[in-house]
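Incident review: delayed structure delivery

Summary: a single-chain prediction request sat in the queue longer than the usual turnaround. Root cause was a stuck worker, restarted by the on-call engineer. No data loss occurred. The affected request and its eventual output are reproduced below so the record is complete for anyone auditing the incident later.

Affected input:
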Amino acid sequence: MSAVPSAGGVPAAQGTGASYAAAGVDIEAGDRAVDLMKVWVKKATRPEVVGGLGGFAGLFDASVLKRYERPLLASATDGVGTKVDIARQMGVYDSIGHDLVGMVVDDLVVCGAEPLFMTDYICVGKVHPERVASIVKGIAEGCVLAGCALVGGETAEHPGLLGADEFDVAGAGTGVVEADHLLGAERVRAGDAVIAMASSGLHSNGYSLVRHVVFDRAGWSLDREVAEFGRTLGEELLEPTKIYALDCLALTRTAEVHAFSHITGGGLANNLARVIPDSLHAGIDRASWAPGPVFDLVGKAGRVERPELEKTLNMGVGMMAIVPQESVDVALATLADRGVDAWVAGGITERGDRSEAVTLTGDYGA
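Output delivered after worker restart:
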């Protein structure tokens, strides 16, 4: 039977009319996901949050800024990258939300900003309400650890573009810092010390290399027990990103801090260089720490040379603080009191005829 022409000469579809559901978008499932996530979003709040989940925009009472003489708003956005595929294969979704918060808020705190609030964006091929709620649970828990509020977000269903089990996440955050307390390269001086803070593992960067090495080259499976890890490969790869925001803010209250550097994509040297003035140089001694076994595994399994590893992975350092020498002891004590493994990894000198802002010397400690 031929199609019956419709207005404009476009053939009418046979059978029942088209619908959003027939196109693959399940509004009811989305509503169910919102109901499930509400309990977690309520936990990630601050007194300045106005209203609840469900509005078109999240509201934050900006009168809190009146206590600042010249408040500077800081903004950051990020995602989790291909680590989401590890979560998908493992069927574990809440740790990815934790990773997302760490990637965003620890970029904010680098300039000395206190994270105030976040929003998230979750894109899925098909809404599985419990999975979406689990992702939001992790985001909310991460916000609690960072001292910020989760004021809203968006869940988008993209059938035809993503598979039914595929998803991606992104987030944006806003913080505030007093202008006179802004941290950065302009404060760094020759003679300063560089303090390293240990990472919890790979964090959320370099997973395209890691996945290529362990899956394509080594042929390992996520359920493989790895003696060096004391758990499976998948459990190691899903270790959540450490969130340093409150630790860094505490450090600014007890010690003089000149700059922070969040060690993410690009590795230690490239990220630290972002807060080193053109006239100065940061020398980092590899012997001051030993990267965790996951870094050694990636290097050996993929025959990845050290320079490639160091420009891709954090190599066991997730955050760095640059402080004057007289603040080193109190800084290390503050971090130790907060359970942060930290050490002096190097120092700042005049650059002289060096072309690089940062150099790593020696071999990693045992």
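Verification: The two ends are 77 Å apart (CA to CA).
Action items: add queue-age alerting; document worker restart procedure.
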